[in-house]
């Protein structure tokens, strides 16, 4: 039996994932977490084979969690399940230590297959991600899009601002000070050579980082 923990800040999403995995006789969801703190408590109490992890969470993002688990040498296999498109986050997640990446809008059967695959210690990647990985091989820095050079937290800040969130809201959601968020915003504007939030939003839409 493969033991699974689901970490997502939306209770309805967690319920949907739990219900989907419940139909598979070889998979068992042993716990749910809404943020990093709850996840840490669960991992201290129970061992699991697969962690189904969202990227966009309050406090530490899914990418942050991946880095922490990797630094700790954790043996938990992580499957990232996110609403973000593969071309913006899949490569980052895999580089950070994820064993697979699945879009939330995909077929539920794909989620079950992905959990089984990573539980066996193999990588789960879609044909789209395989193509991205192939294109990424040998790519030099000169051909990277400007936002690909942003740190994980800077990219997260960019997406949240472009989604219409105020700096104060972002600070609350990420459990950071408004000053720290302002620093991230300033770095994003500088690295992308943009002047204000409006230009930042246009950039994010044009590059598929957020929906129109």
Automatic annotation (TrEMBL):
* SMART domains (alphabetical): HTH_LUXR (SM00421), REC (SM00448)
- Give the residue spans that cross the bilayer: none
Where are residues bearing 4-aspartylphosphate located in the sequence? 54
* Entry keywords, A to Z: DNA-binding, Phosphoprotein, Transcription, Transcription regulation
- Look up keyword Mitochondrion and say if it applies: no
Checking PROSITE patterns in the record gives: HTH_LUXR_2, RESPONSE_REGULATORY
Does the keyword section mention Phosphoprotein?
Answer: yes
Q: Any coiled-coil ranges, and where?
A: none
Instruction: Please list the residue ranges annotated as the Response regulatory domain.
Output: 3-119
Q: Which InterPro entries match?
A: CheY-like_superfamily (IPR011006), NreC/VraR/RcsB-like_REC (IPR058245), Sig_transdc_resp-reg_C-effctor (IPR016032), Sig_transdc_resp-reg_receiver (IPR001789), Tscrpt_reg_LuxR_C (IPR000792), WalR-like (IPR039420)
Q: Please identify the protein, giving its name as recorded.
A: Response regulator transcription factor RqpR
Q: Which organism is this protein's natural source?
A: Ideonella azotifigens
Q: Cite the HTH luxR-type domain residue spans from the record.
A: 143-208
The gene coding this protein = rqpR_2
């Amino acid at each position: 039996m493969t033991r699974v923990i689901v970490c997502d800040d939306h209770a309805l999403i967690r319920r949907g994932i739990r219900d989907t995995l419940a139909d598979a006789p070889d998979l068992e969801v042993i716990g749910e977490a809404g943020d990093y703190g709850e996840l840490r408590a669960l991992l201290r109490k129970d061992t699991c084979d697969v962690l189904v992890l969202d990227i966009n969470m309050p406090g530490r993002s899914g990418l942050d969690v991946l880095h922490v688990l990797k630094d700790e040498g954790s043996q938990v296999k992580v499957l990232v399940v996110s609403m973000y498109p593969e071309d913006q986050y899949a490569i980052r997640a895999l580089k950070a230590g994820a064993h697979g990446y699945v879009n939330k809008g995909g077929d539920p059967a794909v989620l079950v297959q992905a959990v089984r695959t990573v539980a066996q210690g193999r990588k789960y990647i879609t044909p789209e991600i395989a193509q991205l990985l192939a294109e990424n091989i040998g790519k030099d820095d000169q051909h990277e899009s400007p936002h690909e050079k942003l740190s994980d937290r800077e990219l997260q800040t960019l997406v949240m601002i472009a989604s219409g969130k105020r700096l104060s809201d972002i600070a609350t959601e990420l459990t950071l000070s408004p000053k720290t968020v302002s620093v991230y915003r300033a770095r994003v504007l500088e690295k992308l050579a943009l002047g204000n939030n409006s230009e930042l939003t246009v950039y994010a839409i044009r590059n598929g980082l957020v929906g129109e």
